[in-house]
Predict the 3D structure of the following.
Amino acid sequence: MLNNKSKYTTQIKAEAKRLGFLSCGISKAGFLEKEAPRLENWLNKNMHGQMSYMQNHFDKRLDPTKLVEDSKSVISLLLNYYPSEVQKDTKAPKLSKYAYGQDYHFVIKEKLKELTHFIQQEIGDVSGRAFVDSAPVLDKAWAAKSGLGWIGKHSNLLTQQVGSFYFIAELIIDLDLEYDSIVTDHCGTCTACIDACPTQAITEPYVVDGSKCISYFTIELKEQLPTTMKGKFDHWMFGCDVCQDVCPWNKFSKPHSEPLFNPHPDLLDMVKKDWEEITEEVFKNLFKKSAVKRTKFSGLKRNIDFLK
């Protein structure tokens, strides 16, 4: 059986690479002991703001065996989204880099379907579920446990060779595999992300108050933006990349090779005035299959007006 475990692990990782994933790490499905008190504390301090879904399924969030019946392994996958070009007008309202192209949920789901199909075809009757940031799974904790990186002081996953501009996804399956070991933390004494956060959302190393984060305000918050935050958004209209942009490890980021993540041809050329005068028609054209649709036109307009 050991031989099979090794063989299956090698096959899965090779196929993940063929499908374009940056890397693939595997860990044993089970209770995330270290994460439990952290998550509880974070929720108790209301750092999730109005993201009430974070309170749901507490047990399942910490234990994939409660989420996926008979699960044995968590396969974590990274997919690069670092763009080769960014928005040209430095004074224009800014979009987080992950939202330049098509909605990553759909792009990654397709790849996970292919990987699942491959596993079933090559290995046999294996069942499980695929997750892309849409279920009670602690993506970053599993990726770190699977040796794909460490969780940085900005609470994002960091990898020495490639930084942090990538998506994380999982396949949780009922097959025993060979498991990867954890890598060490390489943040050292650096506090670049903490010092640079425009809204002081990183309250202490490794703790982000979600309710103070620009991404939360521009994407999750559905009501009026608080006047106390006026002038603190650093031109961000959707998401925020500040803590990643200043991180020394992101000097190693290389452009992705996924055509579906390339932006709409007009997007990067839009100047400040174009964004301020954006119409619903232009919004629909620019963001046809984009994650930006989550804010709706009215939400993006609210964010742009707030930056004036």
Summary: The first helix runs from residue 2 to 18. The chain has one domain: 1-308. The chain has twelve helices and ten strands. The mean pLDDT is 96.
